[in-house]
Amino acid sequence: MASAPTTSSLSLAVRRAASVAPAAAPLRRGGLAAGCQPARSLAFAAADQRLAAHVASRCRAASSSRGIRAVATMAKKSVGDLTAADLEGKRVFVRADLNVPLDDSQNITDDTRIRAAIPTIKYLISNGAKVILSSHLGRPKGVTPKFSLAPLVPRLSELLGIEVIKADDVVGPEVEKLVSTLPNGSVLLLENVRFYKEEEKNDPEFAKKLASLADLYVNDAFGTAHRAHASTEGVTKFLKPSVAGFLLQKELDYLVGAVSSPARPFAAIVGGSKVSSKIGVIESLLEKCDILLLGGGMIFTFYKAQGLSVGASLVEEDKLELATSLLAKAKEKGVSLLLPSDVIIADKFAPDANSKVVPASAIPDGWMGLDIGPDSVASFSSTLETTKTVIWNGPMGVFEFDKFAVGTEAIAKKLADLSGKGVTTIIGGGDSVAAVEKVGVADVMSHISTGGGASLELLEGKELPGVVALDEAVTVKSVTV
Ligand SMILES: Nc1ncnc2c1ncn2[C@@H]1O[C@H](COP(=O)(O)OP(=O)(O)O)[C@@H](O)[C@H]1O
Ligand SMILES: O=C(OP(=O)(O)O)[C@H](O)COP(=O)(O)O
């Protein structure tokens, strides 16, 4: 697997690459100036931005001639910073995102989010903590049995290797009683936290009640970190320490870390239905990537902006100027922006539509582009061959219809192939994850995000309230480049 930078705690606001020297050299502890130490070995207790900058500048001086890049990071405290001495016998409120799909018989149809939450919970129970596990499921309006977390208990228990206890409520005397009898190393799953309307309102009294159940707080709910809710944000005001779980840490390491200081060439593939939903992502990625490949429904707005006929394809008339300015911005930034050279068109928006391949410049009236064509797949693939880091957000076509899933699946397979060759491949949540899973290549990617909305916000450069609220720690890491 490729060498994405890893940190011992979370990257957030400040990342200062002190040097990017071309030659690779092994890390040599003795060779660094005082205050600069290899990754994972140095954690500054004080969370001070100036300290981070100061240390970065010292490391810059020390490492520029050795092919070592030192990155001082405003970081969040991690659950990994807590030892058995901190955790033994402690009640730990863990907010996870266990919002998994259930079928009509309440069977879990995709347990990815449950599996992703396991490392943090296992770490806590193996260190003698009492885990009070909280999540939402769906968007219930009040108490709604079909949104109960009960169907998750067997799978959680199986994956953890212990019997998970389930509470019928989120707060209140019954829950308090259960918490008071919890043995060390056990897990109590609270009921769906959104059964209380106070959760989404981030009601301080409700947050205080949640906090009163525990001694410390771990947020591992990356998929919900863009929500300022009582269990993701409010609760941190009443529980110290409030730290990040391993999943949250990994998501930020890839979606912020690997994207901010990527191994280059760095390519971004952006697809999906509309330019309007991806403006922020495209603008942000144009600042960072070397190559930008565009696919999906949004390409027709770009074609039209360039004066091409797009038939009945999806076009956002009010975004034509924006498309033109994004093309200009790419040029100005020296980013090679590639639009598909051919497309698969359909005579109607349906799985059984008649279809044919045409050059992008030859879409007849009445036909709509629903996928990228074979020449585009070939040119995108050969371009991707040159890269060291790739991030993908949004499908290349209407992949829900088999006939128009070819381009998306080909890109998924190409990324799997590149991943096997050491390229860092990051799948940024949402439909692209579904595509990668459909093709059966999810396991080989460097990172697959568990959050659609959250990953989009991160890629747009926004801060996530559930992350901002956590305790800070400054770390310095060094990586060879
Ligand atoms: N050429 C196209 N025309 C219309 N819709 C498209 C086209 N290509 C992709 N889409 C649709 O875009 C949707 C995904 O868009 P979006 O939500 O922006 O992506 P993501 O969920 O990956 O962030 C899919 O439902 C897909 O069918
Ligand atoms: O599934 C989720 O988000 P996602 O669909 O954007 O990945 C999260 O659990 C957040 O759920 P919400 O969008 O109801 O707050």
TrEMBL record:
Listed pathway(s): Carbohydrate biosynthesis; Calvin cycle
Known cofactor(s): Mg(2+)
UniProt-listed GO biological process terms: galactolipid biosynthetic process; gluconeogenesis; glycolytic process; reductive pentose-phosphate cycle; thylakoid membrane organization
Localisation: Plastid, Chloroplast
Top class in the EC scheme: transferase
Reaction equations catalysed: (2R)-3-phosphoglycerate + ATP = (2R)-3-phospho-glyceroyl phosphate + ADP
Keyword annotations from UniProtKB, A to Z: ATP-binding, Calvin cycle, Chloroplast, Kinase, Magnesium, Metal-binding, Nucleotide-binding, Plastid, Transferase, Transit peptide
Gene Ontology molecular functions: ADP binding; ATP binding; metal ion binding; phosphoglycerate kinase activity; protein kinase activity
This enzyme's EC code(s): 2.7.2.3
InterPro entries: Phosphoglycerate_kinase (IPR001576), Phosphoglycerate_kinase_CS (IPR015911)
Main subcellular location: plastid
GO cellular component: chloroplast; cytosol; membrane
Protein family membership: Belongs to the phosphoglycerate kinase family.
This protein's name: phosphoglycerate kinase
Organism name: Zizania palustris (Northern wild rice)
